[in-house]
Amino acid sequence: MNASEQEFKISSKGLQVGMYVSRLDRPWLATRYALEGRLIRSETDAHEIGKLCAYVYIDASRGISPDPRYILIDPPAKSAREQARREIRALRKTTWTDTQTFAEEIPQAEKAHHEIRVTIDEVMQDLQRGRNLQLDRLREGVDAMIESITRNPTAFSWLKEIKRKDGYAYHHALACSVWAASFGRHLGLNRDELSELALAGLLFDVGKSRVDSQIMVSHSPYDDVQHQTMRMHVQHSLDILNEASGVQVSQRIIDAVATHHERHDGSGYPHGLKNGSIPMFGRILGLIDSYDAMTNIRPHMGSRSPHQAVMHLYDARDQLFQAELVEQFIQTSGIYPTGSLVELTDGRVGVVTAVHSLKRLRPTVMLLLDADKRPLSEFASLDLGALPDEEGGRAALAIRSGLPQGAYGIDASQLFLD
């Protein structure tokens, strides 16, 4: 929507009967208002919008003009790049450090992982039976997961990969929630913010439970009608959150769910918002959603290796996704994240079990196949970062390439059974 020449940004304290609100400080979709744009017809209207928004935009060509005392003037803009960097730095409220080793955290992470899997199962079954979303139960599972990830993020990330459950939608929801918590930890979000971001990651696609199941399991590319039907899952998700039982859904979660398919360049949906208009949690979840979708086998599409997915995100920086967020995410995941399959320069194949913060291209790998791609009788752990270099500083043994999920018939979930 093009801004009118008579559009003013004002404090919501200055709302009056007769004003026409053309824009809010959040997407209209994330509110109870069905249509974009609203004439203030009563003091009640003004009060309700004032409670919801810190500021709004008033179109004086369609209603009365605002009192000059309440007009907000944005400060002179710094360079867009510097503003974006400041925005990312402002997220850092906490510096998290590992308080448990990977081995120490695995038993606790396994317990939390089991609990949240069971909870997701029960909640999703309730939704399929037409019952309301039990948000308080999901929050309990998310809180246990957050406790584990703040102690050591690698353990839970490892478990989400090796304990995949049948069904793309199920695993995608849990994986995005784990990625959200891990990425938020890296960005320095505080405990409450981590919980909200992870919960939003678990819920942003919950509306797909109301999409025709034939579309969800289709192995063919979607036609235009199916695309439009699938896009309705955003509104379905918001409806489900609005009907949720238990604790109240925060506005930040609603905003994130409403905007996770919007894109930096305005090419997303449902409203074609551009980066500055997309809430930070919506931007984060949009990036995570795309990354995890690319690295998973979907009903209508194959998977990419994590390395290929990271390169795709990098190529899409400042187009689909904010460049600064892409760069930070790559620091979180590494080129070869925990749980990904890799082939070494000597031909052996393994799964990454740990990523070193200072040597991200030399993770610890559990070897699964020999150089002839035959299963090894025993799995051996190999720390590439601890191996000596050849003359000239070149690694004697390194990763040749990342592999997509299912390469060489490997199913990590069958290798490490409960």
From TrEMBL:
One Pfam family per UniProt: DUF3391
**Molecular function in Gene Ontology:** phosphoric diester hydrolase activity
Database matches in InterPro entries:
DUF3391, HD/PDEase_dom, HD_GYP_dom
Gene3D superfamilies with a match to the protein in the record:
Hypothetical protein af1432 (1.10.3210.10)
Q: Which residues form a coiled coil?
A: none
Segments forming domain HD-GYP: 147-345
Give the PROSITE patterns listed for this entry.
HD_GYP
Q: What is this protein called?
A: HD-GYP domain-containing protein (C-di-GMP phosphodiesterase class II)
